[in-house]
Amino acid sequence: MAIIERPSTAPAVPAVATPSSSLGALKRPMMETGWKSWLFTVDHKKIGIMYGAVAMFFFIVGGVEALLIRLQLAMPDGKILNADVYNQMFTMHATTMIFLFAMPMAAAFANYFLPLQIGARDVAFPRLNALSLWLLVIGGVVLNLAWFLGGAADGGWFMYAPNSGPVFSPSNGVDFWTVGLQIAGIASLIGSINLIVTVLNMRAPGMTFMKMPVFTWMILVVQFLLVFSLPVITVALVLLMFQREFGATFFDAAAGGDPLLWQHLFWIFGHPEVYVLILPGFGIISEVLPTFARKPLFGYPFVVFSGASIGLVGFGVWAHHMFATGLGPVSVAVFSIATMAIAIPTGVKIFNWLLTMWGGKIWYTTAMKFAIGLVLLFTVGGLSGVTHSVAPSDTQQTDTYYIVAHFHYVLFGGMVFGLFAGFYYWWPKVFGRLLNEKMGSWNFWLMFFGMNLTFGPMHILGLQGQPRRMYIWTDARAGEGFFNLAFWNMVASIGSFILTAGVLVFLINVVYTWRKGPVAGADPWDARTLEWLTTNPPKPHNFDRIPVVHHLDEFFHRKYEEDTATHTMRRIADGADLVRAEEAAADSDIHLPGPSYWPLVLALGIGVLGLGTIYGIPVMVVGAAVILLGSFGWVLEPSVPADSEIDPPSVDGPTKEIAPLG
Amino acid sequence: MTNPTDNTAGKKQDMKSTPRNPRRALAGMVAGSGLLLTGCATNAPQDIFQPKGPNAHDINQLQKLVFPIAGIVGVIVLALATYIFLKFRDRGQAIPSQAHGRPIVEITLTVVPALILSVVGVFTFRTIFDLAETQDTEMVINVTGQQWWWEYDYPVQEDFGINQPIITSGQLVMPVGTKVLLRETSRDVIHSYWIPALNGKKDAVPGRINLLRLEADKPGIYAGQCTEFCGLSHANMRMEAVALSKEDFAKWVANQQKPYAAPAAGTLAAEGEQVFLNQCVRCHQVNGQKRADGTAVIAAPDENVYSGAAPNLSHLMTRNTFAGAMFDLLRPACRKDVWSAKPEEFGAKYLAGVSEDCLNATDLRAWLRNAPAVKPMYADPTKLGPTDGKYRGMPALGLSETDIDKLVAYLLTLK
């Protein structure tokens, strides 16, 4: 049950005394079923599932917020929400969708599949992984607590200074927002370091970087983006917190500060964040398209390097969010050209996906439909993106609905469709049952049409001059004729309900599958990568035997070989047989890290400490005490449980050295 | 400020030789969703494809380049995709050879977009610097954003007959064919100035002065809106740019500098002036107004308003809007008459101002009765802690209906 599959030959850290068993009254929570087995788990798969559930919950919350926004804007002078609540609504819609749905859902996929794809038994730091999850949950709770405690944040997810200051946003909403995001940020930062170490150190023997699945590659790029961009937003959030709580003046022009400082800090984080959101979707469909086209990804190295260069260049384009702020022509020109440059690797990806299907044998499953949907919708979003890389043209488009259309094509079309492709593709892997394909088809088409009906008209609205973030629009400026705002606003609102119907079908499908779905075989999609070389769902230790990798798409190449005469592929083995063969050759002793209370305790402490910045020093003291307790508990607990703590004790006891990490 | 360079003179001539057709078909865009946009005279007033001045025209030239390119690329990708989806369906064919791609195809598909983008880049680069040109400015107007209205301050410029500063709000009045430079800043949060027919957006940032050039080809009203989220009533922070012929502009300037004329004693308006002196002058200035004892009335908005200013109401009835251009001072029929006037008739109609017949008394009275009820503002006296008791926006004044009658009568005299 070791988390390190290659036995270390020397004691890991001889100079440090490592505890051999946890101390005190709290016996290690070793149960394997029931709610406690989830609450205290450090298993990357259970954590991944919980990430997914939390993200799905917030997807629904953010979706309801979006529906309220569309209801309000369906007609001129909407009366559903007042200005104040509307401003909170669009702020929290974006915040929720980005930080509490998109990033955690990507983390769910990364947590679950990345170790499986690289042939590892867990992530490098399992307890830190649990801490990430619980911090995310705490962050999400803190962010949304504000709704019930005087109103949510109302400054937009970009939270521009000085409008976010204590005078202009007097409720506590922004305070909850800064604290919640800092906590969620710690979660992401810990998670990213964890995954980077996992990828760098824990790949199966033979898996060189250029034999790594593209999903794993894209997740790796994303983690580097997070490591370098999260500190910047954290700095910005701390400055804002000091401005609000302790009277600092970083963004106050009258006191010598500069409101644009916030914008630079925010977008240096904010633009890489866009790629943090989109690249996991790219990674998922780079697995799905080859699987269902029965061809390897076209130009694998180009896709990998274009992903990496998107990530790199993504750090050099932040000021294209600021073309209207008066940067001066030189800066504007540089950022304009850099933004055009980023379109090139992005275009490379689209062509590579299309050419992956070229000459293939395409199987139109729901997962494949969503993947194809991503390619088409993202193309639209990418092309409208090129129109605002042209800075002068952007000064007409920015802050209008045209931008809203653009980034929803990129993020909903690009990311959410990718995630849904992932749901359908990997559901049998995680739950052992196949999602219903017929409902899947309904799900896809409702979402595809709903999405185009919702966000397509926003191109028109924006080009007709309807600005964003306005709680009402007026008939006086709606125009007449084909492009009038009244008609297209109504269409967009109707579209949003069709889109919702699509999501509901998915939720029904999930429940149906859970109750009655057909049990999936070992290899329902004739898949290509290592995560399928184990049972569905995988055992706690993932692989009975650590696979040795010889190919990119290792699993596929164990099943097929090329017929030299016809240059087509001939089946030489069955996926299920391969899985059985692995089971038969199982390693005799596998030690996994044990469950722990401490990640949850530590996360709770951080949450209380955060609330203390709003509710005063006594609360902070309580939080700090809990953090202290959690840290000591953590440090004094070995990552791998001693035999005495396993009930009943393992039959043979450990025979291999294990390196206690985590 | 009046030294147009040869370069811009040439550009102007060039523009005259190519009349722009407002019904011009625009550009195919966003092929994926199959939208095809056409410009059209009945489009919304903030349609970004209907430039009415050289700055917006320059931008539109770029849009006319990049939108069709995006559209064509989109159509090609969509066509290729559709072909692939149909052609390579699973028809029981064998699983193909596991080829990993061809570098030559990859390189072509990298280089071709790069070339297309470099063409776009060159034109973009040039336009960015053209639009930032301010050497040949002919007229300066200071524009200050405040939650949730704009103040326009015309510094003394003898060339235009402006012998004393003019401070106004609601509508930016400018002469046609004149390179007007806006010097933008803000008194509170970031706002953004946007008249789509005349130029792109430029943010008004506290502590900074940002420059935005406007120039209108023809007389008329051009609609705009604040486009940087600026808090509660962001949606209600609108603006209108009014372009007048040079002669009409001179008349407008002369009228703005006309001395204050108190309403005749004994009229309803004179009673209204008393209400105004009791209530409104705490924040609102009317230039030249005097008290009964002959002392000048100086408003002190900074004592009552957080950001320190309230709209100057001198010559209010020469404007067509109030409350941050959220409401019209003209009744709908009269408003339509002005907005749809032909360029040659526009000036006379605009300069006529707001007559009693045309006054939109409904909205004005509602505003005077309880301003925060019709425009969301931070004006609840119990919730002014963070601003040390100062309002953001106009509070409810608790005026009686008779006071409102008097006040409306008085305001109508501010011509």
Describe this structure in words.
The complex is a heterodimer of chains A (662) and B (415). With 662 residues, chain A is mostly helical. Chain A has a single domain, classed as Cytochrome C Oxidase, Chain A. Chain A contains 18 helices and 2 strands. Chain A has a two-stranded antiparallel sheet. In chain A, helix 3 packs parallel to helix 5 and helix 3 packs parallel to helix 12. The N terminus and C terminus of chain A are likely disordered. Chain B is elongated and about 100 Å long. Chain B contains 10 helices and 14 strands. Chain B is α+β, with helices and mostly antiparallel strands and 415 residues long. In chain B, helix 2 packs antiparallel against helix 3 and helix 5 crosses helix 10. Chain B folds into 2 domains: 110 residues, Helix Hairpins; 279 residues, Cupredoxins -  blue copper proteins (Immunoglobulin-like, Sandwich), CATH 2.60.40. In chain B, a hairpin with a 7-residue loop joins strand 1 and strand 2. Helices cover 33% and strands 16% of the residues of chain B. At the A-B interface, helix 3, helix 7, helix 9, helix 10 and helix 11 of A face helix 2 and helix 3 of B.
